[in-house]
Amino acid sequence: MSYIIRPWVTRDLKDIMHLIRESAAFHKALDQVTTTPEILRDDGFGKEATFGCLVAEVPPERTSKNGHTIVGYQFHYLSYCTWDGPILFGEDLYVVPEFRGKGIGTSLMNKVAKIALEKGCSQFRFISAQWNQPAMDFFTRLGAVNVTTQDHWHLCHIDGEHVRKLAEQSRK
Amino acid sequence: MSYIIRPWVTRDLKDIMHLIRESAAFHKALDQVTTTPEILRDDGFGKEATFGCLVAEVPPERTSKNGHTIVGYQFHYLSYCTWDGPILFGEDLYVVPEFRGKGIGTSLMNKVAKIALEKGCSQFRFISAQWNQPAMDFFTRLGAVNVTTQDHWHLCHIDGEHVRKLAEQSRK
After folding, report:
1. Which domain holds residue B69?
2. Which of A23, A49, A111, B61 is most open to solvent, judged by the fewest CB atoms within 10 Å of its CB?
């Protein structure tokens, strides 16, 4: 299977957005997607860009059934653990269905692990849906530990209106 | 109750480290703490610093029983959601036991929410231990949603040796 893993460039934006939406639809959360190729460009390629994205690209003669050469992606950013120091945090790992089982997901994980080491991180963290058993099995095979199951760490979100309300009460 | 919430400075490093260890001990995870005041300084005050820390400080005449004027802290960093765009991620929120119930935790959350808005984030995310019911109740009162319980998002870690092993298999 011929493919390359490389950092994204601006010409990938539309394809990545397409895959982000495909992944969100798989999570039955398409209505939660408010990003656009323009937003991703401004946030990801500006001077203050805080995250990176890896893409898996196949040759033009082997496109996905939707005609894309970008068939997988992985977002990541530096974060920090007060116990461990720098860690790399992953957001999304996606490979289009007809290209699964060919090692592309593993290659994306290999490359992001390499980035983690280059940035001095001893740990790679990410979020996965517990019901997505094939994904959980895949991550477990790569050495991942589910610390929600093991240590009862739960993820919490404070959204929009509540963030504004909290901020308004900030002491001068 | 007289206290201020402000960004950390290098003279806070030892006090913050003391509180990080106190918090880790509360989580029965003191053996997982490898950071030191020097590591926090190099990572948090260098040119490439990727995270911030807020501290709660009381006047010298009202120190904690351990003699500290820094009685609470909160770490945060910018992260990115492919669905929502920029988000602020929190790591640790801690107030020493004898200073709890005085609004210090809420003031730290107010200030971090303000930072989130200033940085263009519509969401504040953090991890909390499910068994820490007082913390969970506190966050719920502030508008937090536990997306592990609600949407089955689980947190996974790939550590040290497994990161190195993955990286070694990275395609040239």
Report:
1. 4-168
2. B61
B145–A130 CB contact, under 8 Å: no
State how far the alpha carbon of B148 is from the alpha carbons of A105, A129, B160, in Å: 24, 9, 25
CB atoms under 10 Å from CB of B152, counted, come to 13
- Chain B residues within an 8 Å CB radius of A13: none
Interface test with A, best of B151, B166, B171, B172 (most A CBs within 10 A): B166
Counted across chains A and B, CB pairs separated by less than 8 A come out at: 270
d(CA B5, CA B110): 10
**Closest partner CB to B34 (pick from A75, A84, A136):** A84
Cβ distance A35 to B146 less than 8 Å, yes or no, reads no
Count up the domains in chain A and report the number. Answer: 1
Q: How far apart are CA B155 and CA B91, in angstroms?
A: 14
ipTM of the complex: 0.92
Report which secondary-structure segment, H or E, holds B151. Answer: helix B147-151
Cα(B127)–Cα(B146) distance, integer angstroms: 9
The label of the residue with tokens 């099995």 reads: A137
| CB neighbour list of residue A105: distance below 8 Å, 6 or more residues apart | A72, A93, A95, A138
Closest in A24, A154, A169 to B83, CB measured? A24
User: Starting from the edge strand earliest in sequence, which strands make up the sheet with A70-81, in order?
Assistant: A4-7, A51-57, A70-81, A85-95, A123-129, B153-159, A145-146
Alpha-carbon distance of B56 to A137, in angstroms, equals: 42
The pLDDT tens digits along chain B (172 residues) read 799 999 999 999 999 999 999 999 999 999 999 999 999 999 999 877 889 999 999 999 988 788 889 999 999 999 999 999 999 999 999 999 999 999 999 999 999 999 999 999 989 999 999 999 999 999 999 999 999 999 999 999 999 899 999 999 986 5
Query: What does residue B168 show for φ and ψ, rounded to 5 degrees?
Result: -65, -30
- Residue B109's CATH number: 3.40.630.30
Q: If you measure CA to CA, which chain A residue comes closest to B81?
A: A91
pTM, 2 dp = 0.92
